[in-house]
UniProtKB/TrEMBL annotation:
This is Putative oxidoreductase YdgJ. Residues 72-171 form the Gfo/Idh/MocA-like oxidoreductase N-terminal domain. SUPFAM superfamilies: Glyceraldehyde-3-phosphate dehydrogenase-like, C-terminal domain, NAD(P)-binding Rossmann-fold domains. Pfam families: GFO_IDH_MocA, GFO_IDH_MocA_C2. Its EC number is 1.-.-.-. It comes from Stieleria varia. One of its GO terms (molecular function) is nucleotide binding. Keywords: Oxidoreductase. The keyword RNA-binding does not apply.
Length: 458
């Protein structure tokens, strides 16, 4: 990469988890990167609400771009929606004082020698193609979760990441959160005894009315937005619904269509199952059976496919149990709030964003964890926020905290849960061969056919 980082200045400036909040509103070059050549050059591919909600026309600070721009300079933005692309260009100009390259086709930025990092915030069905081709082009990658649409894509990403030596951080930022790191440290210190089960409460998915087929907005290249997915009619219905005030097959609402995502199973599941897999010590393997104890969809399914293409189709209510060879289990369920319950032979803890409870947590007052316990969990790295962890990994060429390989294993459980829900039966999984055992229909969902012209270019 063409940039260098003064680690001492960076760490002095960030002050750990509180750094981002303390520096909010600063306009000068942050974190000691006073020389433009010390700052990585970033291209944003996908400028929707996860990148920055202001680029969708909303007055909100939500998104990852404000933090990323403190650590580097956006030099290019890319989106299939010209309206969002224009807003993103204006935002970057305000941040940097320079107008970024504005393109619809991501290949124009991964082939650009003036780009060091590709920041992917597209819908899920685009993630793997862009990330793989970016790594092959010599770029490092920050990819929002979920990393992939299928298990096959995860295997490809892991292979390419190893072969190219590129750095890829997945946007499962809970791995850099103090509550979750403390939970993992408690487990690894034996404070729960032998941990046998993790229950991930991730919430249910919405339903929709019938959404009529209509012409896409003039600003949107619908063919490009669909990309690797099948070419189908654009659907849209205005109404009092969510971020976009609509039901659709497109912006934000893509999450509720199996063609582009996995519903809540890969939306919040990508976060909580990731931590559950880490806590159970299963980041290098997978379950051997996946049982859809209960799974409901808003439309009828036949042979694993929805028969109605006018409504949302991902699972709305579910209890799906993944069992490992040693008897440990991960449950994914739609109810019981939001968070993860770890159960062990000597206690249990509950953790979510902002909350960590249970007797082993209370016992920390009289029996604290040893010094350096959180750093040990954090791969012996300095405790930072998720984005700085990525930038420092790019500098020292070591895996970031949310690496491709372990996340692939965690996300595979989410994908398998979706497959079991779709076929409506328990499936057996060989975690070494990464294949479904004795169920050709379920195995057929391990990969998806990519539309001609949008294949992954290896």
């Amino acid at each position: 990469m063409s940039f260098t980082i003064n680690r001492r200045n960076v760490l002095k400036s960030t002050l750990g988890w509180g750094g981002a909040a303390m520096l909010a509103g600063r306009t000068e070059r942050a974190f000691g990167f006073t020389n433009p050549n010390e700052r990585p050059r970033i291209a944003a591919v996908g400028t929707g609400s996860r990148w920055y909600q202001k680029a969708t026309g909303r007055d909100s600070e939500y998104g990852s771009a404000p933090r990323m721009q403190q650590l580097g300079d956006y030099v290019a933005v890319c989106d299939a929606d010209q309206y969002r692309l224009g807003l993103a260009g204006e935002i970057v100009t305000q941040w940097t004082g320079n107008s970024p390259k504005k393109v619809a086709d991501y290949r124009a930025v991964i082939d650009d020698p003036n780009v060091d990092i590709i920041h992917i915030s597209t819908p899920d069905h685009w993630h793997a193609k862009i990330a793989i081709e970016a790594m092959l082009a010599g770029k490092d990658v920050y990819c929002e979760k979920p990393m992939t649409l299928t298990i096959e894509e995860g295997r490809l990403m892991s292979r390419v990441c190893k072969e190219t030596g590129r750095i890829c951080q997945v946007g499962t930022q809970q791995r850099s959160s103090k509550e979750f790191l403390t939970a993992i440290a408690l487990i690894q210190a034996g404070r729960l005894g032998k941990v046998t089960k993790a229950t991930c409460s991730i919430g249910g998915a919405p339903t929709s009315p019938r959404i009529p087929a209509t012409d896409p907005p003039k600003s949107l290249d619908w063919n490009l937005w669909q990309g690797p997915a099948a070419d189908v009619p654009f659907r849209y219905l205005a109404g009092d619904n969510g971020e976009t005030q609509s039901w659709s097959r497109c912006h934000y609402e893509f999450r509720w269509w199996y063609e582009y995502s996995g519903g809540k199973l890969t939306d919040w599941g990508a976060h909580h199952c990731d931590i559950a897999t880490w806590g159970l010590g299963k980041t290098e393997t997978g379950p051997v059976s996946i049982d859809p104890v209960m799974a409901e969809h808003p439309v009828e399914f036949r042979d694993g496919y929805p028969v109605d293409d006018s409504r949302y189709n991902t699972a709305t209510r579910f209890l799906i149990r993944a069992s490992f060879a040693d008897g440990k289990q991960i449950e994914l369920r739609h109810d019981q709030g939001n968070g993860i319950m770890f159960e062990g032979t000597e206690g249990r803890i509950f953790v979510n964003r902002g909350r960590l409870t249970g007797k082993p947590v209370e016992d920390l007052k009289s029996n604290p964890l040893p010094g350096g316990a959180l750093e040990a969990v954090y791969r012996d790295r300095e405790l930072t926020d998720h984005f700085l962890n990525f930038i420092l990994a790019c500098q020292d060429r070591q895996d970031p905290i949310s690496d491709v390989h372990s996340h692939h294993r965690a996300l595979s459980t989410c994908h398998l849960a979706g497959i079991a829900a779709r076929v409506g039966r328990k499936i057996q999984w060989d975690p070494e061969a990464e294949k479904v055992v004795g169920d050709p229909l379920a195995q057929s969902f391990i990969a998806r056919e990519r539309r001609k012209g949008f294949e992954i270019e290896m």
